[in-house]
Protein backbone atom coordinates (compact mmCIF):
# COMPACT_ATOMS: atom_id res chain seq x y z
CA UNK A 1 0.00 0.00 0.00
CA UNK A 2 1.43 3.32 -1.01
CA UNK A 3 1.75 6.21 1.34
CA UNK A 4 0.04 9.44 0.48
CA UNK A 5 1.17 12.77 1.90
CA UNK A 6 3.46 10.97 4.33
CA UNK A 7 0.51 9.23 6.03
CA UNK A 8 0.20 5.54 6.67
CA UNK A 9 -3.54 5.68 7.48
CA UNK A 10 -3.42 3.27 10.39
CA UNK A 11 -1.37 0.38 9.08
CA UNK A 12 2.33 -0.36 9.31
CA UNK A 13 4.38 0.60 6.20
CA UNK A 14 6.05 -2.11 4.19
CA UNK A 15 9.56 -1.03 5.16
CA UNK A 16 8.88 -1.93 8.77
CA UNK A 17 9.09 -5.52 10.10
CA UNK A 18 6.16 -7.61 8.94
CA UNK A 19 4.02 -9.73 11.24
CA UNK A 20 4.23 -13.50 11.05
CA UNK A 21 1.47 -15.58 9.55
CA UNK A 22 0.96 -19.00 8.07
CA UNK A 23 -1.49 -20.20 5.48
CA UNK A 24 -0.91 -23.36 3.49
CA UNK A 25 -2.58 -22.48 0.17
CA UNK A 26 -1.14 -18.96 0.07
CA UNK A 27 2.62 -18.62 -0.19
CA UNK A 28 3.41 -14.95 0.12
CA UNK A 29 6.65 -13.18 0.99
CA UNK A 30 8.89 -16.03 -0.15
CA UNK A 31 11.95 -14.27 -1.61
CA UNK A 32 13.05 -16.81 -4.27
CA UNK A 33 9.55 -17.33 -5.63
CA UNK A 34 8.80 -13.62 -5.50
CA UNK A 35 11.98 -12.89 -7.46
CA UNK A 36 11.01 -15.39 -10.13
CA UNK A 37 7.54 -13.90 -10.38
CA UNK A 38 8.92 -10.38 -10.71
CA UNK A 39 11.27 -11.53 -13.47
CA UNK A 40 8.44 -13.35 -15.25
CA UNK A 41 6.23 -10.29 -14.97
CA UNK A 42 8.89 -8.10 -16.56
CA UNK A 43 9.57 -10.68 -19.28
CA UNK A 44 5.87 -10.97 -19.97
CA UNK A 45 5.53 -7.20 -20.30
CA UNK A 46 8.54 -7.07 -22.60
CA UNK A 47 7.21 -9.92 -24.73
CA UNK A 48 3.81 -8.29 -25.09
CA UNK A 49 5.46 -5.01 -25.97
CA UNK A 50 7.46 -6.71 -28.71
CA UNK A 51 4.30 -8.24 -30.10
CA UNK A 52 2.54 -4.90 -30.01
CA UNK A 53 5.45 -2.84 -31.40
CA UNK A 54 5.22 -4.11 -35.01
CA UNK A 55 1.60 -3.05 -35.15
CA UNK A 56 2.60 0.46 -34.13
CA UNK A 57 5.35 0.46 -36.76
CA UNK A 58 2.98 -0.69 -39.51
CA UNK A 59 0.45 1.97 -38.62
CA UNK A 60 3.17 4.62 -38.59
CA UNK A 61 4.47 3.54 -42.00
CA UNK A 62 1.01 3.45 -43.51
CA UNK A 63 0.35 6.88 -42.12
CA UNK A 64 3.55 8.18 -43.73
CA UNK A 65 2.67 6.52 -47.02
CA UNK A 66 5.62 4.13 -47.21
CA UNK A 67 5.58 2.25 -50.51
CA UNK A 68 9.09 0.82 -50.89
CA UNK A 69 8.76 -2.89 -51.76
CA UNK A 70 12.09 -3.82 -50.18
CA UNK A 71 11.16 -2.06 -46.96
CA UNK A 72 7.81 -3.84 -46.82
CA UNK A 73 9.54 -7.21 -47.35
CA UNK A 74 12.02 -6.61 -44.54
CA UNK A 75 9.24 -5.38 -42.31
CA UNK A 76 7.21 -8.50 -43.01
CA UNK A 77 10.20 -10.73 -42.17
CA UNK A 78 10.80 -8.82 -38.95
CA UNK A 79 7.16 -9.12 -37.93
CA UNK A 80 7.16 -12.83 -38.74
CA UNK A 81 10.32 -13.38 -36.70
CA UNK A 82 9.01 -11.48 -33.72
CA UNK A 83 5.69 -13.33 -33.98
CA UNK A 84 7.44 -16.71 -33.88
CA UNK A 85 9.58 -15.66 -30.92
CA UNK A 86 6.52 -14.31 -29.15
CA UNK A 87 4.50 -17.47 -29.79
CA UNK A 88 7.31 -19.67 -28.48
CA UNK A 89 7.70 -17.38 -25.47
CA UNK A 90 4.00 -17.64 -24.65
CA UNK A 91 4.17 -21.45 -24.96
CA UNK A 92 7.12 -21.53 -22.55
CA UNK A 93 5.28 -19.28 -20.09
CA UNK A 94 2.17 -21.46 -20.12
CA UNK A 95 4.25 -24.64 -19.88
CA UNK A 96 5.97 -23.26 -16.79
CA UNK A 97 2.67 -22.13 -15.29
CA UNK A 98 1.16 -25.59 -15.90
CA UNK A 99 3.51 -27.32 -13.47
CA UNK A 100 2.19 -27.95 -9.96
CA UNK A 101 -1.30 -26.74 -10.82
CA UNK A 102 -3.94 -27.21 -8.10
CA UNK A 103 -6.47 -29.97 -8.66
CA UNK A 104 -9.67 -28.39 -10.03
CA UNK A 105 -11.64 -31.37 -8.67
CA UNK A 106 -10.97 -30.15 -5.11
CA UNK A 107 -12.95 -26.95 -5.42
CA UNK A 108 -14.59 -27.27 -2.02
CA UNK A 109 -11.41 -28.13 -0.09
CA UNK A 110 -10.41 -25.08 1.90
CA UNK A 111 -7.62 -24.76 4.43
CA UNK A 112 -8.84 -22.77 7.42
CA UNK A 113 -6.01 -21.39 9.51
CA UNK A 114 -6.92 -19.02 12.32
CA UNK A 115 -8.61 -15.71 12.90
CA UNK A 116 -7.00 -12.46 11.82
CA UNK A 117 -6.58 -10.13 14.81
CA UNK A 118 -6.31 -6.34 14.67
CA UNK A 119 -4.59 -4.62 17.61
CA UNK A 120 -3.75 -1.12 18.78
CA UNK A 121 -0.19 0.23 18.55
CA UNK A 122 0.97 -1.70 21.65
CA UNK A 123 -0.15 -5.06 20.29
CA UNK A 124 -1.89 -5.70 23.61
CA UNK A 125 -5.42 -4.34 23.13
CA UNK A 126 -7.45 -6.41 20.68
CA UNK A 127 -9.67 -4.16 18.60
CA UNK A 128 -11.34 -6.79 16.45
CA UNK A 129 -11.07 -10.42 15.50
CA UNK A 130 -12.00 -11.50 11.99
CA UNK A 131 -13.22 -15.02 12.57
CA UNK A 132 -11.81 -17.64 10.27
CA UNK A 133 -14.78 -20.00 10.68
CA UNK A 134 -16.58 -19.58 7.38
CA UNK A 135 -20.33 -19.85 7.12
CA UNK A 136 -21.44 -21.73 4.04
CA UNK A 137 -24.73 -23.47 3.26
CA UNK A 138 -24.78 -25.28 -0.06
CA UNK A 139 -27.73 -24.57 -2.31
CA UNK A 140 -28.92 -26.04 -5.60
CA UNK A 141 -28.96 -23.85 -8.69
CA UNK A 142 -32.72 -24.27 -9.07
CA UNK A 143 -33.18 -22.69 -5.62
CA UNK A 144 -31.36 -19.51 -6.68
CA UNK A 145 -33.69 -16.85 -8.13
CA UNK A 146 -33.28 -16.24 -11.84
CA UNK A 147 -32.85 -12.55 -11.05
CA UNK A 148 -29.61 -13.34 -9.18
CA UNK A 149 -28.23 -15.36 -12.08
CA UNK A 150 -29.29 -12.73 -14.60
CA UNK A 151 -27.74 -9.96 -12.49
CA UNK A 152 -24.38 -11.71 -12.26
CA UNK A 153 -24.26 -12.53 -15.97
CA UNK A 154 -25.40 -9.05 -17.04
CA UNK A 155 -22.79 -7.40 -14.83
CA UNK A 156 -19.82 -9.75 -14.88
CA UNK A 157 -19.93 -11.92 -18.00
CA UNK A 158 -22.53 -11.32 -20.71
CA UNK A 159 -20.90 -13.97 -22.94
CA UNK A 160 -20.89 -16.64 -20.23
CA UNK A 161 -22.91 -19.16 -22.25
CA UNK A 162 -20.81 -18.63 -25.40
CA UNK A 163 -17.16 -18.74 -24.30
CA UNK A 164 -15.08 -21.77 -23.28
CA UNK A 165 -13.73 -20.35 -20.04
CA UNK A 166 -11.86 -17.32 -21.32
CA UNK A 167 -12.37 -14.46 -23.77
CA UNK A 168 -9.11 -14.29 -25.76
CA UNK A 169 -9.85 -10.92 -27.36
CA UNK A 170 -10.70 -9.37 -24.00
CA UNK A 171 -7.49 -10.72 -22.50
CA UNK A 172 -5.41 -9.41 -25.41
CA UNK A 173 -7.09 -6.01 -25.21
CA UNK A 174 -6.49 -5.77 -21.45
CA UNK A 175 -2.81 -6.64 -21.90
CA UNK A 176 -2.37 -3.97 -24.57
CA UNK A 177 -4.12 -1.38 -22.40
CA UNK A 178 -1.93 -2.44 -19.49
CA UNK A 179 1.23 -1.93 -21.54
CA UNK A 180 0.01 1.50 -22.58
CA UNK A 181 -0.66 2.32 -18.93
CA UNK A 182 -4.38 2.82 -19.44
CA UNK A 183 -5.35 0.06 -16.98
CA UNK A 184 -3.94 -2.82 -14.98
CA UNK A 185 -2.64 -5.69 -17.13
CA UNK A 186 -5.31 -8.39 -17.24
CA UNK A 187 -7.86 -6.19 -15.51
CA UNK A 188 -11.50 -6.33 -16.55
CA UNK A 189 -11.08 -9.39 -18.77
CA UNK A 190 -12.06 -12.16 -16.34
CA UNK A 191 -14.99 -14.44 -17.08
CA UNK A 192 -17.16 -15.93 -14.34
CA UNK A 193 -15.15 -19.13 -14.67
CA UNK A 194 -11.90 -17.21 -14.15
CA UNK A 195 -13.37 -15.44 -11.12
CA UNK A 196 -14.33 -18.81 -9.67
CA UNK A 197 -10.81 -20.15 -10.20
CA UNK A 198 -9.27 -17.04 -8.64
CA UNK A 199 -11.48 -17.15 -5.55
CA UNK A 200 -11.81 -20.90 -4.97
CA UNK A 201 -8.55 -22.42 -6.23
CA UNK A 202 -5.83 -19.80 -6.65
CA UNK A 203 -5.00 -16.56 -4.85
CA UNK A 204 -5.68 -12.95 -5.78
CA UNK A 205 -2.03 -11.98 -6.36
CA UNK A 206 -1.47 -9.99 -9.55
CA UNK A 207 1.29 -11.78 -11.45
CA UNK A 208 1.68 -13.09 -14.99
CA UNK A 209 2.25 -16.65 -13.74
CA UNK A 210 -0.96 -16.64 -11.68
CA UNK A 211 -2.91 -15.23 -14.60
CA UNK A 212 -1.56 -18.00 -16.84
CA UNK A 213 -2.59 -20.63 -14.29
CA UNK A 214 -6.01 -19.00 -14.03
CA UNK A 215 -6.48 -19.24 -17.80
CA UNK A 216 -5.38 -22.90 -17.93
CA UNK A 217 -7.61 -23.95 -15.02
CA UNK A 218 -10.59 -22.02 -16.42
CA UNK A 219 -10.33 -23.91 -19.70
CA UNK A 220 -10.07 -27.21 -17.79
CA UNK A 221 -13.16 -26.40 -15.72
CA UNK A 222 -15.17 -25.61 -18.83
CA UNK A 223 -14.13 -28.96 -20.30
CA UNK A 224 -15.10 -30.85 -17.15
CA UNK A 225 -18.29 -29.08 -16.02
CA UNK A 226 -21.43 -27.80 -17.71
CA UNK A 227 -22.36 -24.13 -17.51
CA UNK A 228 -25.03 -24.84 -14.90
CA UNK A 229 -22.54 -26.80 -12.79
CA UNK A 230 -20.06 -23.92 -12.95
CA UNK A 231 -22.79 -21.49 -11.87
CA UNK A 232 -23.72 -23.75 -8.95
CA UNK A 233 -20.10 -23.95 -7.80
CA UNK A 234 -19.71 -20.18 -8.26
CA UNK A 235 -22.71 -19.32 -6.10
CA UNK A 236 -21.60 -21.74 -3.36
CA UNK A 237 -17.92 -20.71 -3.29
CA UNK A 238 -17.63 -16.97 -3.90
CA UNK A 239 -16.99 -14.78 -0.79
CA UNK A 240 -19.74 -12.32 0.11
CA UNK A 241 -18.02 -10.42 2.89
CA UNK A 242 -17.49 -11.04 6.60
CA UNK A 243 -17.35 -14.84 7.02
CA UNK A 244 -20.01 -15.59 4.44
CA UNK A 245 -19.06 -17.92 1.61
CA UNK A 246 -21.82 -18.77 -0.82
CA UNK A 247 -25.00 -16.91 -1.61
CA UNK A 248 -27.27 -18.82 0.81
CA UNK A 249 -25.10 -17.84 3.77
CA UNK A 250 -25.02 -14.24 2.54
CA UNK A 251 -28.78 -14.17 2.09
CA UNK A 252 -29.36 -15.48 5.60
CA UNK A 253 -26.83 -13.11 7.17
CA UNK A 254 -27.78 -9.88 5.38
CA UNK A 255 -31.50 -10.31 4.70
CA UNK A 256 -32.58 -12.99 7.19
CA UNK A 257 -34.17 -15.19 4.54
CA UNK A 258 -33.44 -18.08 2.19
CA UNK A 259 -31.94 -17.15 -1.15
CA UNK A 260 -35.05 -18.49 -2.89
CA UNK A 261 -37.10 -15.75 -1.18
CA UNK A 262 -35.03 -12.78 -2.31
CA UNK A 263 -36.72 -9.84 -4.01
CA UNK A 264 -35.42 -8.29 -7.21
CA UNK A 265 -33.63 -5.49 -5.31
CA UNK A 266 -32.08 -7.98 -2.87
CA UNK A 267 -31.04 -10.26 -5.73
CA UNK A 268 -29.29 -7.37 -7.46
CA UNK A 269 -27.54 -6.47 -4.21
CA UNK A 270 -26.04 -9.93 -3.77
CA UNK A 271 -25.27 -10.19 -7.48
CA UNK A 272 -23.06 -7.12 -7.17
CA UNK A 273 -21.45 -8.04 -3.85
CA UNK A 274 -18.55 -10.30 -5.00
CA UNK A 275 -16.76 -7.49 -6.85
CA UNK A 276 -15.55 -5.96 -3.55
CA UNK A 277 -17.44 -7.52 -0.61
CA UNK A 278 -15.52 -5.90 2.25
CA UNK A 279 -15.75 -2.43 0.71
CA UNK A 280 -19.47 -2.75 0.04
CA UNK A 281 -20.14 -4.18 3.49
CA UNK A 282 -18.46 -1.18 5.09
CA UNK A 283 -19.88 1.44 2.70
CA UNK A 284 -23.68 1.30 2.30
CA UNK A 285 -23.70 4.13 -0.27
CA UNK A 286 -21.18 2.31 -2.47
CA UNK A 287 -23.25 -0.88 -2.16
CA UNK A 288 -26.44 0.93 -3.15
CA UNK A 289 -24.67 2.42 -6.16
CA UNK A 290 -23.47 -1.05 -7.10
CA UNK A 291 -26.98 -2.51 -6.69
CA UNK A 292 -28.46 0.18 -8.92
CA UNK A 293 -25.74 -0.45 -11.51
CA UNK A 294 -26.60 -4.17 -11.55
CA UNK A 295 -30.27 -3.32 -12.05
CA UNK A 296 -29.37 -0.96 -14.90
CA UNK A 297 -27.31 -3.69 -16.57
CA UNK A 298 -30.17 -6.18 -16.16
CA UNK A 299 -32.48 -3.73 -17.89
CA UNK A 300 -29.94 -3.06 -20.66
CA UNK A 301 -29.62 -6.80 -21.31
CA UNK A 302 -33.39 -7.26 -21.42
CA UNK A 303 -33.76 -9.29 -18.22
CA UNK A 304 -36.15 -6.83 -16.53
CA UNK A 305 -38.44 -4.02 -17.63
CA UNK A 306 -37.75 -0.35 -17.03
CA UNK A 307 -40.60 -0.24 -14.51
CA UNK A 308 -39.07 -3.12 -12.54
CA UNK A 309 -35.66 -1.43 -12.62
CA UNK A 310 -36.98 1.90 -11.38
CA UNK A 311 -39.08 0.33 -8.63
CA UNK A 312 -36.17 -1.78 -7.34
CA UNK A 313 -33.80 1.19 -7.39
CA UNK A 314 -36.24 3.16 -5.25
CA UNK A 315 -36.23 0.53 -2.50
CA UNK A 316 -34.15 1.36 0.59
CA UNK A 317 -31.10 -0.81 1.15
CA UNK A 318 -31.07 -2.38 4.60
CA UNK A 319 -28.55 -5.05 5.60
CA UNK A 320 -28.49 -6.99 8.85
CA UNK A 321 -24.90 -6.85 10.12
CA UNK A 322 -23.54 -8.24 13.38
CA UNK A 323 -19.95 -7.22 14.06
CA UNK A 324 -19.72 -8.84 17.49
CA UNK A 325 -17.10 -7.42 19.84
CA UNK A 326 -15.46 -4.50 18.06
CA UNK A 327 -13.55 -1.47 19.37
CA UNK A 328 -12.86 1.69 17.36
CA UNK A 329 -15.23 0.21 14.75
CA UNK A 330 -14.85 2.68 11.89
CA UNK A 331 -11.08 2.58 12.19
CA UNK A 332 -11.05 -1.22 12.30
CA UNK A 333 -13.29 -1.51 9.24
CA UNK A 334 -11.03 0.91 7.37
CA UNK A 335 -7.96 -1.15 8.27
CA UNK A 336 -9.76 -4.33 7.20
CA UNK A 337 -10.62 -2.71 3.87
CA UNK A 338 -6.96 -1.79 3.32
CA UNK A 339 -5.84 -5.33 4.20
CA UNK A 340 -8.27 -6.83 1.70
CA UNK A 341 -7.10 -4.43 -1.00
CA UNK A 342 -3.51 -5.51 -0.40
CA UNK A 343 -3.84 -9.25 0.32
CA UNK A 344 -7.31 -10.33 -0.83
CA UNK A 345 -10.42 -11.58 0.96
CA UNK A 346 -9.16 -15.14 1.36
CA UNK A 347 -5.98 -14.28 3.24
CA UNK A 348 -7.63 -11.71 5.50
CA UNK A 349 -10.42 -14.16 6.38
CA UNK A 350 -8.27 -17.22 6.99
CA UNK A 351 -4.62 -16.16 7.03
CA UNK A 352 -4.34 -15.81 10.81
CA UNK A 353 -2.74 -12.36 10.46
CA UNK A 354 -1.66 -10.37 13.52
CA UNK A 355 -2.07 -6.73 12.55
CA UNK A 356 -0.52 -3.95 14.65
CA UNK A 357 -2.06 -0.58 13.86
CA UNK A 358 -1.10 2.99 14.81
CA UNK A 359 -4.12 3.51 17.07
CA UNK A 360 -3.49 4.70 20.64
CA UNK A 361 -6.18 3.03 22.75
CA UNK A 362 -6.10 5.65 25.52
CA UNK A 363 -6.45 8.47 23.00
CA UNK A 364 -9.25 6.56 21.27
CA UNK A 365 -11.25 6.32 24.49
CA UNK A 366 -10.73 10.04 25.15
CA UNK A 367 -11.80 10.88 21.61
CA UNK A 368 -14.99 8.82 21.87
CA UNK A 369 -15.86 10.53 25.17
CA UNK A 370 -15.16 13.97 23.69
CA UNK A 371 -17.44 13.31 20.72
CA UNK A 372 -20.21 12.16 23.02
CA UNK A 373 -19.94 15.13 25.40
CA UNK A 374 -19.55 17.84 22.77
CA UNK A 375 -22.36 16.46 20.59
CA UNK A 376 -24.76 16.62 23.54
CA UNK A 377 -23.85 20.31 24.03
CA UNK A 378 -23.88 21.49 20.42
CA UNK A 379 -26.15 19.30 18.33
CA UNK A 380 -29.46 20.98 19.12
CA UNK A 381 -28.17 24.47 18.32
CA UNK A 382 -26.38 23.23 15.20
CA UNK A 383 -29.39 21.21 14.02
CA UNK A 384 -27.09 18.18 13.57
CA UNK A 385 -27.28 14.54 14.61
CA UNK A 386 -23.84 13.11 13.88
CA UNK A 387 -20.16 14.00 13.96
CA UNK A 388 -16.71 12.45 13.99
CA UNK A 389 -13.13 13.01 15.09
CA UNK A 390 -9.73 11.95 13.85
CA UNK A 391 -6.42 12.64 15.63
CA UNK A 392 -3.15 12.24 13.73
CA UNK A 393 0.51 12.54 14.60
CA UNK A 394 1.73 15.57 12.57
CA UNK A 395 5.27 14.18 12.44
CA UNK A 396 4.46 10.97 10.57
CA UNK A 397 0.75 11.01 9.71
CA UNK A 398 -0.10 8.09 12.03
CA UNK A 399 -3.76 7.88 13.00
CA UNK A 400 -3.86 7.95 16.80
CA UNK A 401 -7.65 8.09 17.28
CA UNK A 402 -10.54 7.66 14.86
CA UNK A 403 -14.22 8.16 15.69
CA UNK A 404 -16.31 7.78 12.55
CA UNK A 405 -19.67 8.68 14.10
CA UNK A 406 -21.25 9.58 17.42
CA UNK A 407 -22.61 6.06 17.95
CA UNK A 408 -21.72 3.16 15.66
CA UNK A 409 -24.68 1.10 16.91
CA UNK A 410 -27.33 3.83 16.50
CA UNK A 411 -29.16 3.18 13.24
CA UNK A 412 -31.42 6.22 13.74
CA UNK A 413 -28.44 8.45 12.87
CA UNK A 414 -26.99 5.97 10.39
CA UNK A 415 -24.20 5.37 12.91
CA UNK A 416 -22.32 2.88 10.79
CA UNK A 417 -21.73 5.52 8.14
CA UNK A 418 -18.22 6.92 8.46
CA UNK A 419 -18.47 10.72 8.45
CA UNK A 420 -14.64 11.03 8.42
CA UNK A 421 -14.11 9.30 5.10
Q: Would you mind describing this structure in some detail?
A:
By secondary structure, this protein is mainly alpha-helical. 52% of the residues lie in helices and 5% in strands. It is built from 15 helices and five strands. The strands form two sheets. A three-stranded mixed β-sheet has the order 2-1-3. α11 (284-300) packs antiparallel against α12 (306-314). The two termini are 18 Å apart. The model is unreliable at 1-40 (pLDDT under 50).
Low-confidence stretches: 1-40
Task: Determine the structural class based on helices, strands and strand pairing.
Answer: mainly alpha
User: Roughly what is the average pLDDT, rounded to an integer?
Assistant: 75
Oligomeric status: single chain
Count all strands and give the number.
Answer: 5
**What fraction of residues sit in β-strands?**
under 5%
Specify the overall morphology: globular
Radius of gyration: 25 Å
Helix content: 40-55%
**How many DSSP H or I helices?**
15
Largest sheet: 3 strands, mixed
Strand order of the largest sheet: 2-1-3
Distance between the termini: 18 Å
Instruction: Give, in order, the helices and strands.
Output: HHEEHHHHHHHHHHHHEHEE
SSE arrangement:
Blueprint: H1 31-64, H2 69-98, E1 116-119, E2 126-130, H3 146-156, H4 168-179, H5 192-200, H6 208-224, H7 227-237, H8 247-255, H9 264-272, H10 277-282, H11 284-300, H12 306-314, H13 329-343, H14 345-350, E3 354-356, H15 361-382, E4 389-392, E5 399-403
Parallel strand pairs: 1-3
Antiparallel strand pairs: 1-2, 4-5
Helix pairs in contact: 1-2, 2-6, 3-9, 3-11, 5-6, 5-7, 9-11, 11-12
